[in-house]
Specification:
Layout: E1 2-9, H1 14-24, E2 31-37, E3 40-47, H2 50-59, E4 63-64, E5 70-75, H3 79-88, E6 93-101, E7 105-112, H4 115-121
Antiparallel strand pairs: 1-3, 1-4, 2-3, 5-7, 6-7
Length: about 130
């Protein structure tokens, strides 16, 4: 399984819309984690074909995070701890973007050179339990 992460304004019926669109396209959702931070819904779906799933969602005006990114939820100002942990274990951060944040916490997508190692290290911060392949 691989994870596809959707970032959207939070609203009533959002999960129903996503489920309908993917079901209509014969995409089975194997697992789901949803968080709302700063008025944004960040939804991680475990699916068999992340590329096709992302394409279907994009065609229906949903924004998805980079499928190779590790998505973490951290307390406000907690990204320093994450980057220090990764640097200490010689995991190179190739890119990072904030998906959503408020005064108490943030959700970030991180691209690294050693995703499996980073997932093991950051397991307590992962938004979704799936590790990149």
């Amino acid at each position: 399984m691989k994870t596809v992460t959707i970032v959207s304004e939070d609203r009533v019926g959002l999960l129903a819309d996503i489920s309908y669109i993917l079901g209509k396209s014969s995409v089975n959702i194997e697992g789901i984690v949803a968080e709302v931070v700063g008025g944004k819904a960040v939804i991680s779906l475990e699916v068999k074909d992340p590329k096709r799933t992302s394409e279907i969602l994009s065609q229906n005006n949903f924004t998805t995070a980079d499928p190779d990114a590790i998505v973490v939820k951290v307390p406000a100002n907690g990204m320093d701890q994450i980057t220090e942990m990764l640097a200490g274990e010689k995991v190179l951060v190739k890119g990072m973007s904030a998906l959503s944040s408020d005064a108490s916490e943030g959700i970030f997508a991180i691209n690294v050179d050693k995703p499996r190692k980073a997932c093991r290290m950051l397991s307590t911060f992962l938004l979704a339990n799936a590790a990149p392949i």
